[in-house]
Write a structure and sequence with these properties.
The chain starts with a strand and ends in a 12-residue tail after the last helix. The chain contains 5 helices and 6 strands. It has a 4-stranded antiparallel sheet, with no helix packed on it. A two-stranded antiparallel ribbon has the order 1-2. It is globular, with a radius of gyration of 20 Å. The protein is about 20% helix and about 15% strand. A hairpin with a 5-residue loop joins β1 and β2. The chain is α+β, with helices and mostly antiparallel strands.
Length: about 220
């Protein structure tokens, strides 16, 4: 895969072993028709943070070694297929740490230039209803059918909710959408440092303000 090649699902595979992240961002900005010097400081910071996760060495056949801890055998995830899926299914016997409930934390690493990746999996009850959805164009406006617009909405622009989606969720929960007003603050109102995993975990939050309730 060549440097600056745009991935199938909006990921930007960048870089050879040499070259700084700033140079890689310049390559990205040229492809997207951006002029970094004319962007506001907030917009440049947003672009740098979102693209930083994709500044990696693209290698075919990469295998992830996943460690769930507690002495459990490591799980090896093969490379994804042309559709972006691995087909991996695994069972791990362990006791989740109640401090992180309902999440299970894990670590993964790849061969070559050793990289350690932190992740987490959501633990769901054995019974019940779960809704699993890709957020692109169902929750967040992405425009996946237009590659350039998709990348701009993913890496450059402030995230925008799909109109009416919040109301659909409220109706599904049996609530009256006329009594709710939903707004996304996202990156505009962080409560912690968004450059660290701990800070991002604190920023992923839902705040509910109750108004107009009589005594």
């Amino acid at each position: 895969m060549q440097s600056d090649e745009i991935g199938r699902h909006g990921g930007v595979a960048l870089g050879q072993a040499s070259g700084a992240c700033a140079k890689r961002r310049r390559h990205q900005s040229r492809y997207l028709g951006l002029k970094l010097s004319s962007m506001s400081p907030r917009a440049r910071l947003r672009f740098a943070r979102r693209t930083s996760l994709f500044h990696a060495e693209p290698e075919e056949g990469t295998v992830l070694e996943i460690d769930f801890g507690q002495g459990t055998p490591h799980v090896f995830m093969p490379s994804s297929d042309a559709g972006g899926r691995t087909g991996l299914r695994t069972t791990v016997a362990l006791t989740p740490d109640p401090r992180f409930a309902p999440w299970l934390r894990f670590h993964a690493r790849v061969a070559g230039p050793a990289r350690r990746i932190e992740g987490r999996a959501l633990l769901v009850p054995a019974q019940g209803l779960s809704v699993i959805s890709d957020i692109d164009d169902t929750v967040k406006v992405t425009q996946v059918r237009d590659q350039q617009q998709m990348l701009l909405n993913t890496f450059v622009r402030a995230f925008e909710a799909v109109p009416g989606m919040a109301q659909h969720y409220l109706i599904g929960l049996g609530a009256d959408p006329k009594k709710f007003q939903v707004s996304g603050a996202g990156e505009a109102k962080p409560i912690a440092d968004n450059t660290t995993p701990e800070g991002r975990a604190k920023n992923r939050r839902v705040e509910v303000e109750v108004v107009g309730v009589g005594k």
